[in-house]
Structures are given as C-alpha cells and as structure tokens.
Amino acid sequence: MTSAAVAQSSPIESDGIRNDTAPGKILVVDDQRNMRATLAMMLRGSGHEVDEADSGEKGKEMGSTGAYDMVLTDLRMGGADGIDVLRAVKQTQPLTEVMVMTAYGTIESAVEAMRLGAFDYIQKPFTEEELLVKVSRALESRKLQGQVQLFAQEFKEKYHFDNIIGRSQAVRDVLGRVVRVAPTDAIVLITGESGTGKELIARAVHANSRRADKPFVTVNCAAISETLLESELFGHARGAFTGAVSARKGLFEEADGGTFFFDEIAETTPSFQAKLLRAIQEGEVRRVGENKSIHINIRVIAATNVDLADAVRERRFRQDLYYRLNVARFTLPPLRERREDIPLLVQFFLDKFNKKMNAQARLGEGVMEQVVQYNFPGNIRELENMVEQAVAFSGGGVISVDDILPEAPQKRAGPRGRALADIVDDAEREAVSAALAAHEGNRERAAEALGISPTTLWRKMTRLGITFEPR
User: Fold this and answer.
1) For residues 41 and 460, what is the distance between their CA atoms, to the nearest angstrom?
2) 440 and 423 fall within a common domain
C-alpha cells in the first residue's frame, strides 16, 4: 500500500480543525514507509507530536510505554497486526486511544477492533480532513478520560477511598452511598460474598463520619466463642470467672465515641444477639459480673456474607436485631459482576507485590483476558492471593496463565470441551426456569420448591438472565 491510500483534500484551515484541535502525542504504526511518512506529515502539520513504528511488534513495544495520547495503526501488517497492537496497548495503557486503518473488504476486522476497545476506525482511502476530524475526536476523548481519572483520584483522597479500586457503575453506586450515609449516625449493614471488601467499606464510612478521629474497633464474631465474645465486648469485673484476676474494660468502652464494626454478625448465637440488641438500643453495657450499667456512645456497622432474612426465617438470627441493623444497607457485588474492574485490581496488586518482593513481574500476552473470564468465588481476596502467588512463582518475570490460574475450575473442561462453570450455569438455569414455569411465575412458591429463599432465587435469576412474569 502507498500514500495513494490517503486522498488529498483542499486546505482545511477554514474548517477550524487545525486551529481548534489540542495537540497530542501520536504513534503511527504502519509497515509501509510511504503511507507512514504521509500520515506523520499530515499530523505534524496539524501541530501534533508524532513518532513512527515500522512494524506491529515495534508498535506494541512503543505503544505500551504510556508515552502516547493516541495510537494510529494499520490493521493489516506482516507479523503482528493492528489487533495485536490494540490488545498490547489497551492491556498496559487503557487510557490511550487507539484508531485502526482498514482497507475495503476488512470492515469485519475493524468492528472486532472496536469491540476490543478501539476508539474508532477509518477506511482507506480517506481524506486528510476526515483523518484529522477523527484524530481530534480521539484526543478529546483521551482528554476527558484523563479528567475523569484526575477527579477519581481527588475523590479518593477526599473521601479516603485509596484502597477501594474500581470504576464500574456498581462501585460508583456504593461509594456514592458511602458519601451520603457516612456523615449521619445511622447503623450500617454491609452484605456480600466473602472477599468483596466489606471491611474496606466499613472503614470508609468511619473515615467520612464525624467520628473519624475516634476509635474504629473491629471484632470477627466467627473467630471467638460466645463466652469469650461477651467478655471481650462487655468487659468483666474482678472474680467474674476463673482467671479474672482484675477488672477489664470491654471493647465497647474502648470504642466510646467512635465506630464498632461487627464482622460476620450472623455467626453469633440468639442469646448473645439479645444482649447486643439491648446494648445498641439503650446505649449501655454491663460488664460480666457487675450490676452497674455503663453508658457508651458508638456507631454500629455490621457485615455478613449470609442472607439475614433467610437466617431470621430459620430462627438462627433474631428478627428484632435484624430490623435494628438493617437501617442503611450496602450490598457489595461479587467480582464476577464487575469484570471491568478486574484489570485495575490486577495492576494494583501487581504493583503492590512487585514492590514488596523487589520484582518486576508482568502479565504475559493474553493472560489478562483469561483472568477476566475467571469467576472468582473468593472475590477480591482470592484475586489478591492469586497475584501474590503469581509474582512469587514467576520469579519476577513474565506471568503465565498457569502461574496465576493454576487451579482455576474453569480450566477443567466438561463434555465436548465446555467449561465446568458453563455446565453448572446451564443446569441451574434449567432448574430455575422449570420451577418458575411449574408455579406460573410465582417466585415464593418456586423458591420453596427449589429449597432456597426468594431473595436467593431473585439473585440467581439476575445472574442467569432469567425473566419470568407471574400469570
């Protein structure tokens, strides 16, 4: 292909493109020297700073450095092609805009490029004006993304969200509610699967409350027996039990003026829940072995990975305590429902463990795509452990799929090579649809027939894409 692929147009200064377009730094990738030189000349003439790469491999290397606002690449090249360049750039520099050039008859490839994250494509032959208009739009998009990232960083600094990573709508919704609820003294209930970051949200609520300069005290209810839990929380008098050689102040008193975080609240017994309810409602505690009550001023945040409504129906959790805790509720989405955040989290943990291990590990080509497709039953905690393991086993070099996903269930193939997770989803989808059909769309009766709660049924329907209206 030669420079004839670019049709010359009349001068474009009158259209304002050259004067109105903010200069950007652009990488042109094309293995045809004449075409590459013509494009570079046009772009420089419009005030842009331009570098050139004479092959897809060189384009991947240069485009992944983060030095460019935009990459303009030919789609068809010998060796690495434009799709390879696009993937390499977007994997390491997601904010860099990529535009592909395509010849007649390769529109399907251009559409595939758009699906993989290209900003736009331009079909040859094109005019100089057409090129510069599209480049202008790409650079404007890059500028806006940069402003959003800057705002996001300022938002994090202002609201102490430094360790909460993500830009998905689900994460933005949760953080928006944190900002609104934190300044109040409302009791907060945080629900979600294990490893979704419930304690991080609890700390964010405390950090943005009027109690931020007071203690944040946390207790894992599942890790302590009922007897010890009561003594730890309420304190005890001297001689209250064997070994109580002196009086001891409880954690409730330690948290006075601040925030108390109950992790895994569903793991407590009904008898302990009754004492906890009284302490929350009355604002008073009584040390074990004493008759005198002590006034406390605390904000309560509770978290659980259990459906408390189910636990109430099964008489494992007191209904009155459930209603007392369920004031400001946050439901954290599992990682599989916010896959767009996975690359950000992977990079965050890579940076963390590279620094910790004095390494320079990075993901190999195509690894990120497989990581994003994994379902993460352990959520963010599992992802963090996987990245730490990968950095260690890779020797600080290139991380392969086996380094980061050594035991991923999705790598095990089922019948005809299908992933095990897909087979399970299909079986669940069939069972749920059959139950709904048998009960004419009545979710409560369908849930009862399946042996699950209506809430769990609704979640499964949402995840599996099932819609069924009652008749």
Assistant:
1) 56
2) yes
Residue with token string 């925030």: 259
**SS3 state at 65:** coil
| Three-state DSSP state, 294 | strand
49 contacts 26 by C-beta, under 8 angstroms: yes
Q: Which residues contact 234 (CB under 8 A, 6 or more apart)?
A: 250, 252, 275, 279, 285, 286, 287, 288
One-character DSSP codes across 230-262: HHHHHEE-TTSSTT--S-EE-HHHHTTTSEEEE
pLDDT tens-digit profile of 304-335? Answer: 999 999 999 999 999 999 999 999 999 999 99
Cα–Cα distance between 295 and 253 in angstroms, integer? 8
pLDDT for 233 equals 86
Q: Which amino acid is at 131?
A: L
Q: Which pLDDT does position 447 carry in this prediction?
A: 79
Residue 108: pLDDT over 70: yes
Same structural domain, 340 and 214: no
- C-alpha 234/C-alpha 279 separation (Å) is 9
Residue 150 has pLDDT above 60, yes or no: no
Sequence-distant (≥ 6) Cβ neighbours of residue 242 within 8 angstroms? none
- pLDDT tens sequence across 32-44: 999 999 999 999 9
CA distance 459 to 309: 14
Residue 360 pLDDT class (50, 70, 90 cuts): confident
377: which 2 tokens? 């039953």
Please give the residue range of the domain that contains residue 113. 3-148
Q: Which has the closest alpha carbon to 332: 191, 124, 126?
A: 191
Enter the tokens of residue 40: 């570079």
Q: What is the mean pLDDT of the chain?
A: 82
Take residue 393 and report the two structure tokens written for it: 């086993």
Residue 249 above 90 pLDDT?
Answer: no
- Is residue 369, in this structure, part of any structural domain at all? yes
Instruction: Say which CATH number the domain at 64 has.
Output: 3.40.50.2300
Q: Judging by beta carbons within 10 Å of its beta carbon (0-12, 13-18, 19+), is residue 213 exposed, middle or buried? A: exposed
The domain boundary, picked from 114, 148, 182, lies at: 148
Q: What is the mean pLDDT of residues 168-186?
A: 87
Q: What is the pLDDT of residues 387-444, one digit of tens each?
A: 999 998 887 688 888 888 865 544 444 444 445 556 666 777 888 888 888 888 888 8
Query: 3-state DSSP helix/strand/coil percent for the chain, to nearest 5?
Result: 50, 15, 35
Q: Give the integer Cα–Cα distance in Å for 55 and 78.
A: 8
Same domain, 216 and 345: no
Q: Which of 446, 436, 444, 352 is nearest to 390 (CA)?
A: 352
> How far is Cα 131 from Cα 35, in angstroms, rounded to an integer?
13
240/275 same-domain check: yes
